[in-house]
């Protein structure tokens, strides 16, 4: 980039120039003449967010392990940098080489949340690429998408050539190898490559499917255009987590990022099966790593990074069956090296005194739990399987251990919710405060309990997500959500309880995009015309602009967000198989309406279907 | 245990690293020390960290060939081994200029020498003459301080200065005070010259400047800080 562009002049004119400087320790630089495919890994958000993402760290490393592939990083420039780039006619470039993204072979976007879609289009435009796949030229890069949102990529299907479904560390290498092979043997044309890619496991090529619609706007059919294109795409998984690639070094950011520490992935999947949770379904089956492998990986990363904190990453860390041996093995060397452990994703029902002591070196004064609902009835309906007693026990441990702050996460608008359930949220928060004072009296004269308790209740809005038992459910209309928020606010009268709720409008747009079909590409095209991007950021999100986009595209958001989808309706994402069957999810949906819980995977196999994916499974050992 | 022994590391911070703030550099440096396995002394207390003392924090957008950081080692290690271990852990654009037992105290630092390069369509002999005149007389500027803005004559804070033409740009070599009480940011020199000559760096895209710190001196203005 420096060759002909006044780089230094530009960086002197933007905020946080460290976002764009590159040159970090641990980055991968390869000789362009010695590689066969250039891969641009794009994170559609800022540098600070993207550099914190463990998936990106894993995929960057696994692709660069391959001698023929050079994977580089690309982040979304903030608006001030955007203005400078447009002024100087600088296209979007990769950090390592400074070369324009449009000159790469494969350009991949990780799709972590729906609200990043406008940023994806913004980055394509900055790269100088046509937004619609059908408008791009033969020599333009192949644009691929992956990550959780790829499970229903229909709203952005028209902008992408290929989606990678499931875990990518092996799949992306295979896809790139296919690209190299076809380029080398002369068989490459973009259309031939896409046809061949569709035959690899775990790749969805949207242009090879025809979608038919009924008069009522529901989907009539999803049909492959050719006989050799699979009707169903089954997600990819890593079979043996102990043997799978895990980076032994990280790119070390200079500027502070959101998670600036060692992130150690302990296991994939979740045994719980909360009925609103997409991650709990799409990452099944549960595959754990062994404490020995984890401790060794952590030590290597410590030596290679110099970080002073290790965060144990998983969907619910206390469900890891070998947590005690892992902590013991880690503590053998972390304490002496002044490295602290942090355990995010704690569940209230398994937060013990022992666990708390292991993480006593963590630099927080508070703990966070997510009861998700205010009454046992609703917690049963959503299959959260946490009781009030669990929460009180967890808070007792926390308070007796010297903590004074507790954060509680809830979700408003879940299926079957009543005003009684909402009142239950306030009551639960009050009980936590009461618990604090009860314990303070019990421990009188022992010191401690000096600071007043602080309970923060944070309430988000339920969003029905694909591949969950609640995928068919309607989201509450905005005015209903507002009424519920107001009611909840009126119940929050405890001076030790703080109450926050998320912006319901963001959740509504997210619901539309989450359950949208291919016709929503029109909405996103409109969003680019209005210059929208960074919609995951409060300062950028503008609901009125979204309404304009829906109107211009003649799309009714309520059809996607506020409608209960039919049990037998063809869902926009029905061409994808995540392992867990639709039958299982429908059964779970019915059980929710009867307030019946389902045991977790460690208690009993409920035959969700994910075992058919194989792999070294930790729980569902039943035969295929 | 050997008594903790003070060590000084000299390094450069040029190129893109000029965009890394002092705080970010400090965090980066402490991770470099950990990776290098230098037996460094940690701060005591709740959050033990490698104890590092930087002598002259650099503003964002200023490059330097002479940065220093002091630390203590708690075990004997040859200086050249410390240097090579740290060097191996430096990011591509940073380099070690030396590792030594300090000769001077940080408080002895009095002056720093800078090369300020002004790239402007107005960078000609006339500007050179004007700038040399400007810097030779009392020069009152508005300085931002913690308690607000105040008018200061910065002439006493300039030990010497000389403008000349160099490859199409105006090069100003200046030795400025970096006494902790009277620190003069070289940006003020740029501002004074620009406002005197009517150069607008904010608005005109082709006008820009660079600042490079060349050396750090003691009170005599001659002896290098070591």
Give an account of the 3D structure.
- The complex is a heterodimer of chains A (624) and B (226).
- Chain A has 624 residues and is an alpha/beta fold.
- Among the domains of chain A are: 34-207, Cobalamin-binding domain (Rossmann fold, 3-Layer(aba) Sandwich), CATH 3.40.50; 364-502, Transcription Regulator spoIIAA (2-Layer Sandwich), CATH 3.30.750.
- Chain A has 21 helices and 19 strands.
- In chain A, the strands form six sheets. In chain A, strands 2-1-3-4-5-6 form a six-stranded mixed beta sheet, with helices on one face. Chain A has a four-stranded parallel beta sheet with strand order 15-16-17-18. A three-stranded parallel beta sheet of chain A has the order 10-13-14, covered by helices on one side.
- In chain A, strand 7 and strand 8 (219-224) form a beta hairpin.
- In chain A, helix 6 (117-126) packs across helix 18 (521-529).
- The longest helix of chain A has 24 residues, at 419-442.
- Chain A is globular and about 80 Å long.
- The mean pLDDT of chain A is 93.
- Chain B has 226 residues and is an alpha+beta fold.
- Chain B folds into two domains: 5-102, Alpha-Beta Plaits (2-Layer Sandwich), CATH 3.30.70.580; 108-217, Pseudouridine synthase.
- Chain B has helices at 22-36, 79-89, 125-134, 187-197, and strands spanning 5-13, 53-54, 62-73, 94-100, 111-119, 140-145, 148-153, 158-166, 169-177, 208-217.
- In chain B, strands 1, 2, 3, 4, 5, 8, 9 and 10 form an eight-stranded mixed beta sheet that branches. Chain B has a two-stranded antiparallel ribbon with strand order 6-7.
- The longest helix of chain B has 15 residues, at 22-36.
- The relative contact order of chain B is 0.19.
- The interface between A and B is medium-sized, with 29 and 32 residues.
């Amino acid at each position: 980039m420096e060759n002909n562009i006044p780089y230094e002049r530009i960086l002197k004119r933007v905020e946080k120039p460290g976002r764009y400087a590159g040159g970090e320790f641990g980055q991968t630089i390869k000789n362009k003449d010695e590689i066969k495919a250039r891969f641009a890994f794009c994170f559609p958000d800022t540098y600070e967010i993207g550099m914190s993402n463990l998936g990106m760290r894993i995929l960057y490393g696994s692709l660069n392990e391959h001698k023929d592939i050079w994977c580089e990083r690309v982040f979304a420039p903030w608006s001030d940098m955007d203005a400078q780039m447009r002024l100087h006619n600088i296209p979007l470039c990769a950090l390592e080489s400074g070369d324009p993204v449009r000159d790469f072979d494969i350009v991949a976007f990780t799709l972590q949340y729906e609200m990043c879609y406008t940023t994806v289009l913004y980055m394509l435009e900055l790269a100088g690429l046509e937004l619609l796949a059908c408008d791009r030229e033969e020599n333009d890069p192949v644009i691929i998408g992956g990550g959780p949102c790829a499970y229903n990529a229909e709203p952005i299907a028209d902008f992408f050539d290929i989606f990678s479904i499931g875990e990518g560390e092996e799949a992306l290498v295979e896809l790139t190898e296919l690209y190299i092979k076809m380029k080398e043997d002369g068989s490459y044309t973009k259309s031939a490559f896409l046809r061949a890619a569709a035959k690899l496991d775990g790749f969805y090529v949207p242009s090879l499917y025809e979608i038919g619609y009924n008069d009522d706007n529901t989907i009539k059919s999803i049909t492959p255009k050719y006989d050799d294109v699979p009707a169903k795409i089954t997600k990819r998984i890593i079979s043996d987590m102990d043997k799978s690639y895990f980076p032994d070094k990280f790119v070390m950011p200079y500027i502070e990022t959101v998670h600036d520490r060692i992130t150690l992935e302990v296991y994939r999947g979740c045994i719980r099966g909360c009925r609103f949770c997409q991650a709990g379904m799409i990452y099944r089956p549960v595959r754990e790593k062994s404490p020995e492998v984890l401790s060794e990986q952590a030590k290597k990363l410590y030596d290679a990074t110099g970080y002073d904190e290790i965060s144990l990453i998983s969907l619910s860390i206390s469900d890891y069956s070998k947590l005690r041996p892992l902590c013991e093995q880690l503590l053998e060397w972390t304490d002496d090296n002044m490295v602290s452990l942090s355990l995010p994703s704690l569940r209230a029902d398994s937060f013990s005194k022992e666990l708390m002591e292991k993480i006593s070196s963590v630099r927080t004064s508070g703990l966070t739990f997510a009861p998700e609902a205010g009454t046992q009835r609703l917690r049963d309906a959503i299959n959260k399987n946490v009781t009030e007693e669990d929460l009180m026990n967890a808070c007792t441990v926390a308070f007796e251990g010297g903590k004074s702050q507790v954060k509680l996460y809830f979700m408003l608008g879940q299926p079957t919710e009543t005003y009684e359930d909402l009142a239950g949220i306030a009551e639960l928060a009050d009980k936590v405060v009461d618990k604090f004072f009860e314990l303070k009296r019990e421990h009188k004269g022992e010191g401690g309990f000096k600071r007043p308790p602080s309970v923060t209740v944070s309430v988000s809005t339920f969003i029905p997500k694909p591949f969950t038992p609640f995928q068919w459910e309607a989201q509450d209309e905005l005015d209903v959500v507002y009424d519920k928020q107001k009611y909840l606010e009126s119940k929050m009268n405890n001076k030790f309880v703080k109450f926050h709720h998320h912006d319901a409008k963001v959740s509504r747009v997210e619901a539309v995009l989450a359950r949208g079909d291919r016709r929503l590409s029109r909405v996103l095209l409109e969003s680019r015309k209005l210059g929208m991007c960074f919609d995951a950021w409060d300062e950028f999100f503008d609901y009125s602009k979204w309404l304009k986009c829906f109107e211009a595209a003649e799309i009714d958001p309520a059809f996607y967000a506020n409608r209960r989808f039919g049990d037998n309706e063809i869902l926009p994402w029905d061409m994808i198989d995540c392992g867990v069957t639709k039958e299982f999810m429908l059964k779970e949906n019915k059980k929710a309406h009867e307030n019946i819980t389902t045991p977790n995977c460690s208690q009993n196999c409920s035959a969700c279907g994910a075992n058919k994916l194989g792999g070294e499974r930790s729980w569902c050992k039943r035969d295929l | 245990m050997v008594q903790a022994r003070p060590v000084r590391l000299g390094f450069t911070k040029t190129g893109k690293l000029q965009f890394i703030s002092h705080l970010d550099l400090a965090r980066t440096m402490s991770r470099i020390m950990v990776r290098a396995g230098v037996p460094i002394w940690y701060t005591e207390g709740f959050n033990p960290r490698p104890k590092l003392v930087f002598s002259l924090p650099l503003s964002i957008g200023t490059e330097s060939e002479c940065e220093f950081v002091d630390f203590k080692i708690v075990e004997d290690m040859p200086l050249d081994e410390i240097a090579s271990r740290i060097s191996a852990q430096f990011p591509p654009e940073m380099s070690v200029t030396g590792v030594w037992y300090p000769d001077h105290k940080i408080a002895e630092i009095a002056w720093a020498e800078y090369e300020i390069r002004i790239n402007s369509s107005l960078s000609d002999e006339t500007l050179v003459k004007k700038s040399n005149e400007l810097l030779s007389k009392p020069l009152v500027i508005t300085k931002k301080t913690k308690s607000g803005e105040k008018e200061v004559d910065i002439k006493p804070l300039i030990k010497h200065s000389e403008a000349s033409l160099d490859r199409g740009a105006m090069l100003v070599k200046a030795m400025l005070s970096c006494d902790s009480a009277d620190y003069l940011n070289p940006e003020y020199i740029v501002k004074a010259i620009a406002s005197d000559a009517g150069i607008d760096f904010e608005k005109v895209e082709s006008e820009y400047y660079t600042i490079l710190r060349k050396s750090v001196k003691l009170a005599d203005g001659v002896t290098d800080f070591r």
